[in-house]
Design a protein that fits this description.
Chain lengths: ~350, ~350
């Protein structure tokens, strides 16, 4: 059966919506159909600045997008504190939901959204783009190779960028009433997801936040980190920050191999990406050197990861619409596990860096 | 004044002594002069297997090496528990000391050695080879560049290798009576030194060991990690292990830049080495990509890092011998700071992962 073209409505004119709108245009099974903002003028300006088709429906409210019967799915880049309201309403209006991260302020809020999606039979996916890069699948193959990689023992991840003064003053991501998790929710989300991904989504038993998180005047986190511990002895650490140079690392070390990547969230280039895989590495005893050397793996892509994300989402939506399939629960599960760990890290910070159990 | 050729005596036939003997041969101001082992036969076999000059003095005890008036300096690759005895005796015999790491079981023991070296006017240096690679100086320049790198905020280091069953059963490095610090002293030493190096040797205020160190049956650490915290908000983490694939990372993140290296202890190749420097990195908003990209810096060397270490040590010894200079205290200071942090990490592990103050 030919795939349906999924008609997207965009809720709001966030900066990230520019990138995802381009991705919807690039995705072969998706189309920009409607945009709603709190004013028609703003929505109209955004649509024309970002090359939306002339036929795009321009609405002066988010409700109007949800009330349009021809909108199949909504992309929700609103501030986190507004997610419950708009995702629940979208689900009730039978719109499938592609939700920007961090998905929620806490897992209780997320569960309200997931229950609404579930009971209304709509697909849910969060906007973690790198999950959809074919490099990610190739790296997963390596981590799952019990010969070359062996068994995972430690993971380290960093995601940071240096926010400019305007961001630190005005961005929704540093406002306690909009994105109360600050850097932990924004950049820390990716670190936690990376760590869970590396473990094949085993929840840690315990997290212990690092001392010395940095806050803004309103008490929102600008920089923090944590250790994570699994029952089987695996350990992970991460560091996330709005205050240092752009850095996007995953280091995963196994009994037989190691994976290194320095651009996991946003690849250095759009059309190809690489990772380093070390397997059975040794060093020579007498003469300085390694044998064998780590190998570099290059993955070429036709579409950027954000378009692949949209394509995957629309494909799932198409199955629900066209075949009456059940929504794919995998993506909701990954969002929920990520949120559970974020919540535990936040709790550890709030409790003076106590060990906090992660309860699935 | 022409540099003197420093005549080395080697105490013992440890595996690492093969590499350092080659380094002494390669170093232009150093010569292999004597070797002592607990048996003449063993010393003789080692000398011929490793291409010592035919004139090398072969001794059946360590004392005999120290009693040879023509030995200028000794290289001490003995098990850590023997360091105090032999380093103090060597210093009393006016021999300069190149000491394999970990230098001591604790800073109290190290101080006995450093005091002996000081009061006898002999040079002390530990055998941390990578400190002497010209790449290390180039990386230091980058970290000190307040424009390109900015101010250091976080550091992560790993040193691990997968020990084979024979090592795990028989190596001195897993024996409580010989190298009681296990992986912390052996591979953790490098991580702690790397972190201190990155901070320009500022001692952390506090360390908190990671949960879940792995021990052998005798209670010696095979794998562990720690977080380190500085007064000014810098944070570091490290992970060291005998149980996973060879991994040698330093990741240093500053306000304006980031440094990555994956072969800091032993470069991938003997004749050249590289590091990655990111400065003022940004990612493009609409199209996937970074601008600017990190840059790769390649440093070519004539001599391997271990020969450069020997050359530097012999040069200092030559100054003491030839010019009556005072021994250079820098190297003792770096050893002592590294040991202080190791001791604090060990104390944190022993106290159930409590925060432990590092008192210089």
């Amino acid at each position: 059966m030919a795939e349906k073209t999924i008609r997207f409505g965009i809720l709001g004119c966030a900066e990230i919506a520019r990138k995802v709108s381009r991705a919807i245009k690039l995705s072969p099974n998706s189309t920009l159909y409607a945009i709603g903002s709190r004013s028609v003028e703003k929505a109209s300006r955004f649509a024309s600045a970002n090359g939306f088709p002339p036929s795009t429906k321009i609405y002066g409210s988010y409700e109007a997008v949800l009330d349009d019967p021809d909108v199949d799915a909504v992309y929700v880049p609103l501030p986190t504190s507004l997610h419950v309201r708009w995702v629940v309403l979208a689900a009730e209006k039978k719109k499938h939901v592609l939700l920007e991260k961090p998905v929620a302020l806490n897992v209780g809020d997320l569960d309200l959204m997931l229950e609404a999606c579930d009971s209304n039979g709509v697909q849910f996916m969060d906007g973690t783009m790198w999950m959809h890069h074919p490099r990610t699948a190739k790296m997963r193959e390596f981590l799952s190779d019990t010969q070359r990689f062996g068994h995972l023992k430690s993971i380290h991840s960093i995601f940071a960028f240096r926010a400019n003064p305007d961001f630190l003053k005005n961005s929704i991501r540093v406002k306690p009433d909009l994105d109360a998790l600050g850097a932990l929710g924004d950049v820390g989300w990716y670190c936690v997801r990376a760590i869970l991904w590396a473990t094949d989504y085993q929840l840690p038993k315990t997290v212990i936040a690092s001392h010395g998180p940095i806050y803004n005047e309103a008490g929102v986190i600008l920089s923090c980190g944590s250790s994570l511990y699994w029952e089987d002895g695996k350990v992970a650490t991460f560091h996330c920050s709005f205050l240092v140079n752009t850095t996007m690392d995953i280091t995963a070390v196994g009994t037989n191999g190691a994976l290194h990547i320095h651009d996991f969230v946003i690849p250095f280039q759009e059309n190809e990406a690489s990772f380093s895989a070390a397997a059975e590495s040794g060093f020579t005893e007498l003469v300085t050197g390694w044998e064998p050397m780590p190998s570099e793996h290059i993955i070429v892509t036709d579409l950027p990861q954000e378009a692949l994300m949209v394509e995957e989402f629309s494909s799932l939506v198409g199955s629900v619409k066209g075949n009456g399939s059940k929504p794919e629960k995998k993506w909701a599960t990954l969002s929920r596990k990520t949120q559970l760990v974020l919540d535990a890290v936040k709790a550890s910070i709030d409790r003076g860096f106590e060990a906090v159990e992660v309860v699935g």
